[in-house]
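Batch job 17 of 40 flagged for manual review because the log was empty.
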Amino acid sequence: MELLKRTSTQSKHTERVLQFGEGNFLRGFVDWMIDRLNKENGGDYGVVLVEPLSSPMMDKFINDQDGLYDLYLRGLLNGERVEETRVVECVTRCIDPYTRTDEFFECAANPDLRFIVSNTTEAGIEYKQGDDGKSFADTTFPGRLTIFMKKRFDMGLGGFILFPCELIDRNGDELKKCVLQYAEDFGYGDDFIKWVNEENHFTNTLVDRIVTGYPRDDAEKMCERFGYKDNVIDTAEIFHLWVIEGDKKYASEIPFTDIGLNVLWTDDVTPYKKRKVRILNGAHTMMVPAARLAGLESVGEAMNDELIYSFMHKGLFEEIIPTLDLPKDELTQFANDVIERFKNPFIKHLLLSITLNSVSKFKVRDLPSLLEYVDKFNKEPECLTFSLAALITFYRGNEANDDPAVMEFMKTASAAEILAKTEYWDADLTFLLPSVEKYLADIDENGIRAAMEKVVK
C-alpha cells in the first residue's frame, strides 16, 4: 500500500507559521484550524513543524508524506454521534533542529513568517540561569526561541505574533519573560530587547480539546478504507475551544472566527480558565471518587449511571455554576458541552487515571467552588461536601495513587485531622466536620449509592 502523498494539484502553502511541536495535540487542534482556514476562507498559511525533542522517526514519517495526514474527529454533537475524517494539508515540512540546525535557523530569514505556535509541555517554558546560548541542544525552548528571534532581528525583519499553548498560567507572559531574560544573559543588547518588546506580540492562551492521537487498534482498517498508508493518523473529539488574550487587531491576520471556529479573542483569559477548571475539571474530581467507590470503570459508564449522572449534574448546575461570574448562558452552554464530551462513546477515560493526586486536584478544582458557595449562600453545598467525604473514603481503600506521605496520612487520619490539614487545603475546613462525618458514617453503614441517593433527592 502506497504512502499518503501530495498530488500534482496539492501545492504547499506559503510558510507563515513556525510551530514548536509536531505531536498529536497541535496537529489535531491548531493545524486543523489552519487547514480549515485555507480551505474554507481562501487562506494561504503553511506550517513548518519543529521538534522540541529530537525524534527522527516522527520527522521521517511526516516528511515522507509531504506533511499530509488524516485527522479523524469523533464524538457527540447536539446528542448525535458524529465522525469526520479530513486530510490536513497545511503542514509543509518537519524539521529536527538538533540534526538540521541550519535549516531551522534559515526559517528566520523568511519574510512571510509571521506566527509562532508552541506546545512544549508545561515544563517547556522555563529559564535556566547560567545558559550562555552557545549550545543549541543544551538550552531550553525559550532559549532557542531567543536565538532564533535574534537572527530575525539581525536581518532587519519584523517580529511575530506568538501563541504558546503550554498548560501554564499566563503562558505568553511567562514565555516573554524568559526570552527577555535570555536576551540579557546572551548579551544581545538594548536594541534587540526593544525589538522584542515593540515588534512582537506574546498572547496568553487557553486550549481545550481532547486529542487521542494515533489510533493503534484501528489504524490498519482505517488505512484500508483510505486506500493508502498513513503513519501519522491523528484522532480527536469534536469539541474545540481556543481562548486568546491579546490585542484583537491581530485577529484579522489569522481570521479563525470568520469560518465559525470556536476561537475567542479576549482582554482577559482568566475567567475562561477558571470556567474550565471549575466546570470541566471540577465535575470530574467531584464525581470520580464516588463513581469508583460505586464500582464503575470509566467516565462513560458514570454518565450512563442514572445516580452518578444525577449527582454530577446537580453539583455542576446548582453548586459550581452559581459561584462563577461569566454570563449564565455561556456557563450553561459550556457545562452542557462538557457533559456531551463526558458521554463521548469513542473515548474511554478510566476513572482510576483521573483519581491520580486527588487531594491536590480537589484543592484546585472543587474547594474554591465549595468555599465561594458557602460565602455567597451562607450554607454548605451538598454535592461538593459529599464529594469530599467520598474522597476521604476512597483514600481509606487501596486504589488511591498519590504521594506516599499523602496516602499514608489520608488512610489513617480522622476526618477532623484531615479537614484541619491546612497544608493540603490552604484553609482550615473543620467547619465542614459535622457534615463530612455524617456523610462518612452513611457511606460506611449503607454504602456509597444509598448515601448518594439522599444527596441527589
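Reviewer: the log was empty due to a logging misconfiguration, but the result itself is present. The chain has a mean pLDDT of 96. Unflagging and moving on to job 18.
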